[in-house]
Amino acid sequence: MDWQSLEVKVTQATDTPCDCCRAVTTDATGDLYQGNDFLAWYSARWSSGHPDVPMIITIYCGDWREGASSDQRWGAQAEVRFGPDGGCTLVDWSDEAKAKISLFTPLGRDDVLQTSYAPEFWSCIDAVLIKDPRLEHFLG
């Protein structure tokens, strides 16, 4: 699988004023398809007022139909930094975040790296970054 074979369908975005500086924090979501088949959905979070804080993109895969159990679906996160020292890094979920998650299985670095899922995860991240029009100003 490669990012070129994936289609991004933008869904929603929510802008929230930041408590500390009143700049906007954006939470955006979308779906990823391979051909006509649903592959995953994603969320991306960034703040225009905090370029020092990396964007977080979360890829949610598995069975998201109603009634599916949390062990049938999972999520993994990448931290995205822009600029001369930019890049993407697979990150672990914080203990606080994991304690609140009941709808899916949170995957950390060791759960993804060196697995057959890793290429799919990175293809999804690349597709989101390159094909979601809400993110194109970051790549310019």
Key terms for this structure?
single chain; 140 residues; alpha+beta; seven-stranded mixed sheet; 4 helices
Spans of at least 5 consecutive residues whose pLDDT stays below 50 are: none
Instruction: Return the string of H and E elements.
Output: EEEEEEHEHHH
Residue share in helix: 10-25%
Shape: globular
Largest sheet: 7 strands, mixed
Please give the number of β-strands. Answer: 7
The chain-level mean pLDDT equals 92
The domain count comes to 1
Determine Rg (CA atoms, Å). 15 Å
Structural class: alpha+beta
Strand content: 35-45%
Distance between the termini: 25 Å
- Counting DSSP H or I runs of 4 or more residues, the number of helices is 4
Walk me through what this model shows.
By secondary structure, the chain is α+β, with helices and mostly antiparallel strands. The chain has one domain (3-82, 91-133). Helix content is 20%, strand content 41%. The protein contains 4 helices and 7 strands, in the order ββββββαβααα. The chain has helices at residues 95-100, 109-112, 118-131, 136-139; strands at residues 6-17, 24-34, 37-47, 55-62, 73-81, 87-91, 105-106. Strands 1, 2, 3, 4, 5, 6 and 7 form a 7-stranded mixed sheet that branches. The longest helix is centred in the last third of the chain and has 14 residues, at 118-131.
